[in-house]
């Protein structure tokens, strides 16, 4: 996992083409995966503005970050606490998956960037994940699980699932960006059956068992869980989008 996070970090920052003296805003900074490395790249003459909705995350980042050129701001992708044309670079990692109105976020990135500024983002394209029904033998329950997955993955109100790489490219073009470049990489991972059933993928999300419990009877949930456990190790693919663009 640490090696994978390092790839995310280095790829986003490389595509941002950071230079010494740049003012960078890390939107959804969390505990600083991009912030700390960006501060090193822009040097003492540059600045990194860490923006997040969580006070706790920013406090943790303040605890571990020692660079004097890092600053901390409460805000979100749709309403950045920054003046117009005040930064050179916007970077994010796994932020749009929490934003229902992705067009609003792209417009906000455009607003705060100076002319010639760059944006570089990473987003998992969860809509294209390998579905569980493709790797687990649910027997006579397969079609029922597949229909449930289709409803889940096609929910237009779920910001984690309601977009693909084409949608992200479109909202950045509509916001006014030029030189929009993107790359879709296939990530692969495996986890134990129990982790697959009980893990919570993101704050506020349900585990698989909890989600099934909202749609199926307890007896059916037990049968589905038994099929997953019989599989042992679950291997799935999850496409990853890297996108960068410029403000003319």
What does this structure look like?
With 248 residues, the chain is an alpha/beta fold. It has two domains: 2-126 and 158-188 and 238-246, Vaccinia Virus protein VP39 (Rossmann fold, 3-Layer(aba) Sandwich); 127-155 and 189-236, no CATH class. It is built from ten helices and seven strands. It has a seven-stranded mixed sheet, with helices on both faces. The protein is elongated and about 60 Å long. The mean pLDDT is 95.
Q: Structural class given helices, strands, pairing?
A: alpha/beta
How much helix is in the residues?
A: 40-55%
CATH class of the largest domain: Alpha Beta
Gross morphology is elongated
Count of extended strands:
7
- Mean pLDDT, to the nearest integer, reads 95
CATH superfamily of the largest domain: Vaccinia Virus protein VP39
Beta-strand proportion: 25-35%
Tally of helical segments: 10
Radius of gyration: 20 Å
What is the helix/strand order?
HEHEHEEHEHHHEHHHE
**Overall structural domain count:** 2
Largest sheet features: 7 strands, mixed
Please outline what is shown here:
This protein has 248 residues and is of the alpha/beta class. It is built from 10 helices and 7 strands. It has helices spanning 2-16, 33-42, 55-64, 102-112, 132-135, 142-153, 165-175, 193-198, 208-215, 218-231; strands at residues 23-27, 47-52, 70-74, 87-93, 113-124, 178-192, 233-246.
